[in-house]
Amino acid sequence: MSTSARFSTADNVFLGHEEQLKDFTRLAGEGALGHAYLFFGDEGVGKFRFARALAHFLERGTWHAEANTPLSDALFVECAEEEASVGIDTVRAIRKFLSSTPFHSPRRTVVVRDAELLTWEAESALLKIVEEPPTHALIIMVARSPETL
Fold this sequence. Notes:
The protein is α/β, with parallel strands linked by helices and about 150 residues long. About 35% of the residues lie in helices and about 15% in strands.
């Protein structure tokens, strides 16, 4: 993977995240990404968009965060509007997704948006995956605060 960052200029995902863009580009290029990250901060600062852009970069080689861009090696978990939490069945789907070999990316990436909405059971099951991840797994949890997990 190239260590030079290419990105869509129409995408403002990088505004305020220039250092993170540089760091994650370097880590990916060196094959030194960790297996799990927690992106936290105030609502609306671009945590989820940055995570989506990272998944796109790993699979396609460009930094881009368009929601309608299909990725085969990324799974984006969001709480459905009619549900108040993310349950154990979702974590089982995450485990199954991560157990497959990536097609186009060096990693199978899972991004859990609003990770504070995980039920206790789901959080415990996800912790087990984070503690013993498949070698090609990348798990990104997005939350308002690290204390919520």
